[in-house]
Specification:
13 helices, single chain, about 10% strand, three-stranded parallel beta sheet
Length: about 350
Amino acid sequence: MAVAFEQNQDVEGLAARLGVSREAVEITRAAEVIDLHLDTFIPVRLVGYDPFARHDRTWLRGHAFGHLDLPRAADAGLTGGMWSITTNPFRTATGRWKTFEKNLARMRGLIDSSHGVMRLARTRTEYDAARAAGAHACMLAVQGGNCFDAAPNGVASVPDREITRVTVVHLTNSVLGTTSSPMSSLRRSKGLTSRGRAFVEQLDAERVFVDLAHIHPDGFWDAVDAHDRTLPLIDTHTGVVGAKPHWRNLDDRQLKAIADTGGTVGIIFSEFFLAGDHGHRDGQMIVEHMQHIVDVVGEDFVSIGSDYDGAIIPPKDLRSGDQYPRLVQAMLDRKWSQERIHKVLGENFLRAFALLRP
């Protein structure tokens, strides 16, 4: 059974353990800190990982899984996150939908069993209410829109607007469109299908974030074309080509397209997508990508999207969910203002969230 826990109030001790300044811890604790992509539900489903127990980072040595749990998140000041339910593309359409329904029910049960540690946040107002109650605000997300292929009414089949975001395409091609991964080579057409365009329109109608992580550039522009431009677009977990050329990362034109809608771009914590020629092998590589977004479109359109527990290898100093203050220290080392840091940690996302769902 889940039990409530107390945040570690020893700021000096936490700063010393993390090797950061007291200021870095205090800024993190004072800010709204929202991670746009948490995959911790994957090890919960696969191996019975308990997100309410404190796990040592030596669990898999910080590789692939075991990055986050709620006690460590509280210590770091993580106030909310988009918790992803990932689609298995190798099931049948009916199998994907039925499995999603089971996983959604299990995720609801996880929140309900938390005794107030987690609280569902479907709107900006509900996020604020969760924070006022001292809870971790949980915004439910879907990775792989093809889980809705056999749903009776598509996304509308999920009651009470529980899903706040859908990553349209994941690591494989689907009936919606083509992935940005090397699997794109298996398909001649790289854009969204007509069904994919209709899906983007339905997400807009339901006021669900259209997440353009993982999508092929051709599909990206198809989605921009189909999208209601009065609503914010997001890419929840990515790098940027300007800091590291890679099939997984966004170029400057794509950054501008998202910024033009008032959306935001979450920077992933994966070494594989971020490590460039600048030589950084720690959290500075993440800030390098963030800095490029700031240089291209400004400081109002960049966020955090770690992909913790999503089978990634984070930089060596960010392999545990209590280490967000180290990322803040990297920002301070670049002489970023507290205002900019607060925007990146959570305010940019909350602005976009309020545009979509007040």
